[in-house]
Amino acid sequence: MKIIIDTDPGQDDALTILLALASPEIELLGVTTVAGNVPLAQTTENALKTLDLAGRPDIPVHAGADRPLLRPGVTATHVHGRTGFEGVDLPPPGRPATPGHAVDFIIRTVMDNPPGAITLCTIGPLTNIALALAREPRLRERIGRIVMMGCAFSEVGNITPAAEFNVYVDPHAAEMVFASGVPIVVFPLDVTHQLHTSAARLERIAAIPNRIGPVVAAWLRFEKRFEATKYGTDGGPLHDPNTVVWLLKPELYRGRQVNVQIETGSPLTMGMSVVDWWGVGTAPPNAVFMREVDVEGVYDLVVERLSRF
Ligand code: BDR
Ligand code: CA
Hints:
two-stranded antiparallel ribbon, binds beta-D-ribofuranose
């Protein structure tokens, strides 16, 4: 399957890219970057570094939006560190970003392929995707699906009491994406907060006998420093990799077709994902919203794929 990863690396974003590269079922056509965990220049540099680490400097990296559509930018350096990659010092990238804006790359790639052929894997704020949909409305019928890390339902927010980070940063973009009619599969905090990066799981990853395992373990160890303390769990959540893991093994997850809308008006609940889990509203379903996950199955797959490098 052909995918584009739209991302704001971020340690867990980098692991997502690595999992895609380790998987012959997936053809990663390109990586598009967006401002999120850290500013755009840094997310772009981190995407380039990740591809260098994997020995894949042939994959294009297109820089995209450097700020949300309407609201001021918000970063998550309290979780990911100043560089977004704290925990491991990787060498500077061996190349600059590929010329051309991320939005143009997304439009061109989707339009040049048969309808439905391209999966967009979105693991950062949705600014690039909303801009692409606005600029080329035919994308609504052409994008095969959007597989998204974002939203929250049961425990609600990780950046405000009401909102998950990716949606909160650009709620207007997220609302445009949910209103687009493109099939969407959502991996919310409900799923990601079940996947604790426990000491035992990180040791399994660190022990992978190649250059990738120890780097990923060090990244996740840094990410968990803030989150494990905050949530009082043995390990932090594992967010973005669920998107690629699901593409490889959908049977590891269970969810429901529901309507999801995003709050864009209230200062108190800005970016809240309003999920009609019980079907009490009148708006039709627009997404598959995951809630259950086979935790050990996910970690087994992560270890198995990273061992392939
Ligand atoms: C999301 O925010 C970022 O910090 C992570 O990379 C993930 O995409 C979790 O809310
Ligand atoms: Ca991310």
